[in-house]
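Let us practice reading a record.
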Amino acid sequence: MENKKNQSEYLKKKKDNSFLFSTSLIFDENIDKLWLYLRDLSNEVSNVDFLDDFKYVKGNNTWTVGNICSLYWVGVSHLQVKCKYINVNRTRKKIKWKFICDIGISYYKTLILYRITQSGKTLVKVNFARTKKKNELIDVGQTLNYYRELQNNILLQHLKYLQNLKREYILYESCIINISTCGKEVYFSNNEIYEYYLKIWNCLIDFKIWPQISPNIYKNIEYRGQTNEIGSFIKFFDENLKKVIYYKIIGYEMSIQKKNWLCRLESIGSDNINIPIIIEYRIRIINKKKAQLSTLYKFSYNSNPDYIKQFEIIKKEVLKKIIKYVEEN
């Protein structure tokens, strides 16, 4: 009995010696939805201003044991992150990562979600621990309060982001493009149908034709890079808002097998009020005679609802003009 007691005290002391600090916060979100968001470290890099340059090193997610990613803590260090452990059930979800800095520091970060059954809310707790014995050359004791506050702010930024996400405005519209010439049916071989839809697609993503379609809205369009290349930039003057707007292509897919083509743009700059923060164009080939064109515009939560209603009317008219332009050209 005495040996078991001594062993238990030793293990407890060893565990306490590795523990650094923890922080927690209650979220309004359901545990299952919140888990999908928080287990993905790329979301943290996107929403925290001092984190950048997220990349996958091994695997394509951050919640599979053995997968590795990297990121940059701006002005401090590059970090390599490895998923070490995961355990999920209905009321409790837990994941543990190992962080290795290039300044000689490594630590464990453990994220635990607890279901608050009666309210539908979720308690999020984050624990930090050493990966090895205390390094005498690096004294983190005096800065624990700083790092605890830093991690608490990260949780608060996640909370704010998710609250704002609920209030984002999304406008979606779709229509059918009919392939016809002077009201007569047109017949194509498989190669010809692909070339035809390709011409339609190239017409849609050629942003320099926007002023031809809506001369009262878009002016002085310029872009740097190719229109089918992620990272290209688009710049134009919006007559309604009376200001220059910048977009970056963040998604571009042309899947011939799935017959589904996509172009996604994201606004650049801090002044995103009344500007779609995400614009998405998509063509889905139905058959040799028809294709579905869809557009999606996402606005930030602080945009003016009256302006969005006006934008929706304009968007419908622009879509009609796009279809007419495509079918005539």
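A brief commentary: The mean pLDDT is 81.
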